[in-house]
Specification:
Layout (H helix, E strand, L loop, with lengths): L1 H4 L2 E5 L2 E10 L2 E6 L2 E7 L5 E7 L3 H4 L8 H25 L1 H6 L3 H30 L6 H23 L3 H22 L5 H4 L10 H23 L8 H8 L3 H17 L4 H17 L5 H15 L3 H4 L5 E4 L2
Antiparallel strand pairs: 1-2, 1-6, 2-3, 3-4, 4-5
Helix pairs in contact: 3-11, 5-6, 5-10, 6-9, 7-13, 9-11, 9-12
């Protein structure tokens, strides 16, 4: 889900531009106004490109630009694009394995299994453990504060464990390459591998930061939701919380988007600056120093996404103002 989480609104004088990206298998996807493109290095060492024109529903239907709703719509679009680009990258990197596992039913089952694992690890487990270890089920704020802490611990542990895997290490290197390329683009300097490598791998609008913000927003959102439900039931049980919280996840993500947007807009504010710090720290896990050939792939993705419009935007220094 990294694309929406790293979208940037960059302002020069009175012009603005939306740029974001995501690491995929042996490559990077970059999204720019009106298009997105994925660059992947195949087993023979050649860079394969896949570009698509794209116009967001938010651009076609302004009524969806309402606060919270825009984040929900954007997240859905980002997941859809991210999933398709990951599939394409897998076909390029491991064509034989992809053909053996091809089929809509297999894709659906794999997607459902992934969703089930995420819900079980980051929602069911924290709620179940909190109810089991602490007698605070009927205290909405305290219960969600404790379960939220479990969720954060599980998230950090999960990232730390998967970062030990060889394939994930390379994915995190491409994640770093994507950030460096975006920084290089923002600076207005020519897109050069040597220039990009001078920038850090941590970016303030990374998906990792967004995930952390969602977890904080979830504590407050679920506390309010539980308090409202308790007005109608005598006792709030674990199964009730799961039944209520899980469908509410997209709304929490929408609120998280607004917080991230405010964080980017008011980055000089001490509160918002403090809120962005944990996400930057976590990027020490989710990004790695890329090799030059990985940065090259990220740059090819950005150039392909812009296409003939690339010259219109290069040579200018951009300042990130806000998200979306």
């Amino acid at each position: 889900m990294n694309i929406i989480l790293k979208q940037l609104r960059l302002v020069v004088a009175q012009s603005s531009i939306l740029v974001g990206g995501q690491a995929v298998m042996e490559g990077v996807m970059m999204r720019v106004p009106g298009a997105y493109a994925t660059a992947v290095r195949d087993p023979e060492g050649k860079i394969q490109l896949d570009r698509h024109d794209f116009q967001s529903v938010l651009e076609k239907k302004p009524q969806f630009k309402k606060p919270v709703l825009r984040g929900m719509v954007g997240l859905f679009e980002a997941l859809k694009i991210g999933y398709s680009t990951l599939q394409w990258s897998a076909q390029i990197v491991e064509p034989e394995a992809s053909s053996e596992n091809s089929g809509k039913l297999a894709d659906v089952l794999l997607t459902l299994a992934s969703i089930g694992l995420a819900i079980g690890l980051f929602f069911a487990a924290p709620i179940g453990l909190t109810s089991w270890l602490f007698d605070k089920d009927q205290d909405a704020l305290v219960f969600n504060l404790i379960s939220g802490m479990f969720r954060v611990v599980f998230f950090i542990t999960y990232l730390a464990l998967i970062s030990l895997m060889k394939d994930v290490k390379r994915l995190f290197q491409y994640h770093g390459a994507e950030h460096k390329t975006v920084y290089n683009f923002e600076s207005g300097k020519d897109l050069e591998i040597e220039t990009a490598q001078t920038f850090p791998t941590q970016h303030p609008r990374c998906g990792t930061s967004f995930m952390f913000i969602i977890m904080i927003v979830a504590i407050l959102s679920f506390s309010v939701l539980d308090s409202i439900i308790m007005l109608w039931v005598d006792e709030l049980k674990v199964w009730m919380r799961l039944l209520i919280h899980i469908p509410f996840i997209p709304v929490v993500a929408g609120f998280g988007y607004e917080v991230l947007k405010a964080t980017a807009k008011h980055r000089e504010n001490i509160l918002f600056r403090a809120l962005s710090k944990p996400g930057l720290w976590l990027q020490n896990i989710t990004t790695r120093q890329p090799e030059n050939d990985q940065v090259e792939v990220a740059m090819e993705a950005l150039k392909s996404a812009f296409g003939d419009n690339m010259k219109r935007y290069t040579g200018k220094s951009y300042v990130a103002e806000a998200i979306g």
